[in-house]
# Entry
Amino acid sequence: MLLCIDVGNTNTVLATFTGDQLVHSWRIKTDERSTSDELGLILRGLLATDSVHIAGVAACSTVPAALRALRGMLARYYPGIPSVIVEPGTRTGVPMSIDSPKEAGADRVVNTLAAYRLHGGPVVVVDFGTSTNFDVVGQRGEYLGGVLTAGIEISVDALAARAAQLRRIELVKPPRVIGKSTVECLQSGVVYGFAGQVDGIIRRVIAELGGAVRAVVATGGLASVVLDECETVTHYEPMLTLIGLRLVFERNA
# Structure
């Protein structure tokens, strides 16, 4: 099986594939202080539950410290197994039509690849993570750039930290738009506020592209919070980044 690892700022998502079929997936918290041995023990514990045999590894990371530990873990616990870590210089097949290609996060590049392979172009990806990333893919699969905004959890945490009478809330849809309590008011602001932000940005992106895209694809751990209220999102693929990692591995294997 192929093991794909997406190390994000908040969570690390792992999945195994047989061919193009996803077999298992896991989500754990990212800790940049974890050592390569700790990562190895966690990974072996997850994989041991189903006696998974790993024949290859594809990974990407937005956390430099975690990336160093990941390299060490692969060298110690999976020596000799083919591996691809997506970084500048990795063959992804994604043309980069931006000013500084090396600045593009590896997750955004593999999302571009996966979305284009699944839907063609133009296509827009909305990744709901620590930040909310909007990535725009052109007609030929080229990465055109995008938009970055503060993520849902970051915004809620900042509001709770800076406002004395506000607190962290459960991220669920409230029963009505007009909140009848502080919690409902906050939930309404999160769900409908972020949905409105997404729709507003997507409509402007589509207009800038000339008026049409093949798909708007949502992904990321927090997509489910606002997905039902987003009018412009057409598809939801929670494993988009991992699919992109699989495609990159196949290209480099």
